[in-house]
Amino acid sequence: MFRPPLKEPWKYPARLTWWLGWLALVPLAAPVAASVAACTALVSHFLCTRWPERYTGKNWIWAGLGLCILALALFFAEGFLFLSWKQDQLYAQNLAVSRFRLTRIAEALERHREEVGHYPEVSGIHRLKALLEPKYVADCPTRDGFEGSISAWSRFDGYRLEAHPSPRRDGTRPAPLVAEGHFQPGPSPPPPPPPPLEEAPAEPSTSPAPRE
């Protein structure tokens, strides 16, 4: 079949790759647009090579592929930064949960001291949990925000609670979270003085009056 000659070679298949390259700069559309642009670039390059008198625009093809590569690099960089931010946010949230749970246990120990007059004599978080529930706290936590076991010991005059956070993304480990309290019982107050004895009323004298 005879085809009439074109006034100028057709550039639209090649320009389609260029347009898809710009579309790939949209963050959420980058993977799909870059994949479609790569397929379009292959077809356009084949057409330009097979029928150069009818199709042209290899520069548009290479420019579009360059935009796709840039878009994919930005897409993965943004994804890495987003995941890093989410990990840091989750780590800070776990630290806050650990501090909150230590505070709950410390408040329960203070309520025990106010009622009994001293801290309990116990070692280990599970024994402390059995002692404090349910009178002093409804649910005594035994693990911190990182799902690690809380270290706890309590004596007559003080207590110490520790939570050990997991390492950060860079491998460093923060200092343990500590909640502690001390209590020094003072001397017992002296007993109140006895009430004063009431004097008995004087009885009337029954001796005879002296004679004049």
SSE layout and pairings?
Layout: H1 12-23, H2 30-50, H3 58-116, E1 122-123, H4 125-132, E2 151-155, E3 158-163, E4 177-182
Antiparallel strand pairs: 1-2, 2-3, 3-4
Helix pairs in contact: 1-2, 1-3, 2-3
- The stretches of 5 or more residues where confidence is low (pLDDT under 50) are none
Q: Helices and strands: which structural class? A: alpha+beta
- Arithmetic mean of pLDDT: 80
First-residue to last-residue Cα separation:
176 Å
User: Number of helical runs?
Assistant: 4
Number of self-contained structural domains: 2
Describe the largest sheet: 4 strands, antiparallel
Number of strands: 4
Nearest-angstrom radius of gyration?
Answer: 43 Å
Silhouette: rod-shaped
DSSP strand (E) fraction? 5-15%
What is the string of SSEs from the N terminus onward?
HHHEHEEE
Strand order, biggest sheet?
1-2-3-4
Helix content: 40-55%
